[in-house]
Amino acid sequence: MRVPAEVELVRPLNCMLAGLAVLIGVFIIGESARVPWTSYEFVRAALAFAAAVLIAGAGNAVNDYFDRNIDKVNRPKRPIPSGRVEPSTALNISQAMFALGILLVIPINWECVIIAALNSLILASYAARLKRIGIAGNIAIGYLVGSTFIFGGLVIGELQVASILAAMAVLATVGRELIKDIEDMKGDRANKIVTIPLRYGTRKAAALATAFIAAAIVLAPLPRILYSSIFGSVYLGVATVSIVVFIAAAALILGAQDKATAANASLACKVAMGIGLLAFLVATVA
C-alpha cells in the first residue's frame, strides 16, 4: 500500500528521528541530573517528542514548497514536482504543523516555547532564503539538528551534557549537508543557488565536509571521558561503529565528487548519524 502523498511530503521517518533525538536528550540529561521520573516528567517528554515531530515535518513541507522548481530537476518524484500535492496544500500543511508544534510545548516551559518558535522561524527562513547563500544554510541545518538535544535538555533544565551531544550533531550534519550540495549541483546551478561546491569547486567542498566530519569524530569520546557513569563501554562500542561509517563516507567523497558517489557518501553519513543516535540511546537504557 502506497503512503499518501501528504504523509510522504513531511518525511515521517526523518520526523521520528528528530523526535527520538529529543527523547534521547530528555532521558540522558534526566539521568545525569538525577531527575526523579514522575508521570509529569513523562508527559513533558511526550509533548516534547510530539512537538519535535510536528516542527520537523513542517520544515520538510515548507522546504519542498520553496524547492518545487529545483526538485523538478533534482528530485522529480517528490510529491509536489510529481503533481501529487499542490504547492498551496504543502504550505498550509507546514503552517498548521508549525503552529501545533509550538502550542504543544507551552505546558513544558517558556524556554522550550522560545526554542520551538526560533526553530520554526529558522526552518522557514532556510527554505525561503538561507539555503541559497552558501554555508549559512548548511550551518542552519546543523544548528537545527543539534538543537534537538538542547531542546531535550531544556525540558529537564540541564544543558551541560546536552551541549556536547548538540555540538557533535551540528558538526556531523554540516558535513553531510556539504556532501548533499555536491550531489545536488545540477539543480542548484540551474536555479542559481550559490553553494560551496559551485563557488569553490567540489574538491574544496569535499575537504570542508571531511573537516566537519572529523571534528565530530574527535568529540565522540568526550561523553565517555566526562560522564562515564552514563556513557559506558557499550556507548563507546556503538559509537565506534558510527565513527567507522563516517570515515567511510569521508573516504568516498574525497575519492570522487560525482553525483552517484556524493549520494552514497550522504547516505553513509545518514547511517552513521543513526548509529550515533543508537549509541546515545544505549547509554540511556544500559
Descriptive terms for the model:
2 domains; Tetracycline Repressor, domain 2; 286 residues; mainly alpha; globular; Four Helix Bundle (Hemerythrin (Met), subunit A); 0% strand; 14 helices
Give your account of this protein's structure.
This protein is mostly helical and 286 residues long. It folds into 2 domains: 158 residues, Tetracycline Repressor, domain 2 (Orthogonal Bundle), CATH 1.10.357.140; 125 residues, UbiA prenyltransferase (Four Helix Bundle (Hemerythrin (Met), subunit A), Up-down Bundle), CATH 1.20.120.1780. It contains 14 helices and no strands. Helix 3 crosses helix 4.
Task: Give the topology.
Layout: H1 5-10, H2 12-32, H3 39-66, H4 68-74, H5 87-104, H6 110-128, H7 135-156, H8 160-183, H9 185-190, H10 196-200, H11 202-219, H12 222-226, H13 233-255, H14 259-285
Helix pairs in contact: 2-3, 2-7, 2-8, 2-14, 3-4, 3-5, 3-6, 3-7, 5-6, 6-7, 7-8, 8-11, 8-14, 11-13, 13-14
Q: What would you say about this model in short?
A:
This protein is mainly α and 286 residues long. The chain has helices spanning 5-10, 12-32, 39-66, 68-74, 87-104, 110-128, 135-156, 160-183, 185-190, 196-200, 202-219, 222-226, 233-255, 259-285.
**First-residue to last-residue Cα separation:** 37 Å
Structural class category: mainly alpha
Give the amount of beta strand, in percent. Answer: under 5%
Shape: globular
β-strand number = 0
Write down the domain tally: 2
Mean pLDDT: 88
Largest sheet: none
**SSE ordering:** HHHHHHHHHHHHHH
CATH topology of the largest domain: Tetracycline Repressor, domain 2
Query: Residue ranges: pLDDT <50 for 5 or more in a row?
Result: none
The appropriate CATH architecture of the largest domain is Orthogonal Bundle
Specify Rg, calculated over alpha carbons. Answer: 19 Å
Percentage of residues assigned to helices: over 70%
